[in-house]
Specification:
The chain is built from seven helices and eight strands. It has 200 residues and is of the alpha/beta class. It has one domain (3-199): TIM Barrel, CATH 3.20.20.140.
Amino acid sequence: MSPQEVVEASLRRGLGALAITDHNTLAGAQAVQQLAPFPVVIGEEISTSDWEIAGLFLEDEVPKDLSARETVRLIQEQGALAGVPHPFDRLRRESLDTEVLERLADRLDFLEVFNARVTLPEDNRRAREFALQHGLACTAGSDAHSRFELGRVYLEMDRFDGRDEFLERLREGRIVGTRSPFWVHFCSISARALRNLHRG
């Protein structure tokens, strides 16, 4: 989706704010923020040597391929929030070592407990249990790679002003929505194949 398409689709669905976490870049989130008439949280989903770590309220990109612990440190050093997306999704290419997550838990600000692209419902339930057990704020995301997916899952939460108020409102938020159908993964595979074909 182009930034303009993201804004238009969000307005049609009545979304009041967005958190954009593209893989290893802030550029998409920054472009959407410039166009959107609603708040946009600048984020990044960062590939680490352990798993993926999400940063919210970032000002600078965090380099990929560091350890999860180092990535969390770099996120929080710039006053941003650090968390883990889809932590127990057994069908993603990488799988999170539960011991790594246990060691990180007291350093995290949030955990994604409902991801619309998680195919097995038990994996989302396990994430929620872990978050509650460790006192972490719970997030949810559509993990949208297409207009169809945007806003399938969202949080109902009060308005916020800045990072600290966002985290406070997040703890009071309510998750709404449903998982995406399994076939959306084939759309992503096709899109990647087309991109690679154009590059070649």
